[in-house]
# Entry
Amino acid sequence: MEGMDGWLMLRVPTRYRMPARALVQEIAPDKLYDAEIKRHRQKRSLDANAYFWLLCGKLAAITGIPKNEIYQQYICEIGDNFEIVPVRSDAAKQWKKIWESRGEGWLCISLGTSKLAGYINLCCYYGSSTYDAKQMSRMIDLIVQDCKDQGIETAPPDEIALMKARWADAPDDKGV
# Structure
């Protein structure tokens, strides 16, 4: 809508009306602004994060697989947490380096040649620091099942359910 005058109305909860009004009053007509509206997603709690890493450590002790590798295996298993990105073949190594520098769970795996000439497809997984409650719940369910399969004691189902219920009240965190 560059160069166009117009109105945009948003319903703002009472507690945000004054800050919203102050923001609108600061808008300069000769400047461009970006706004983002996205669907709210519940974030996971630190309790869930801590519990996941506790189980990861126990599983690592039994299997001999480093806990970070176990964590990365779960990243690839939960689904709905990646993008397929076509990248020029000569830039793929740098893309992977930059993507994976974001953290342990930010994985970039080559899927091979793209249908675009000179490109390869990379599967770029988001780290769990971006996960909502549903995604983190799946990750905990997977590790709980694997721990049970290895004879590792886990929290009772009602305690795990309580951790999941607390996610609605959890602050936004980036623990993993």
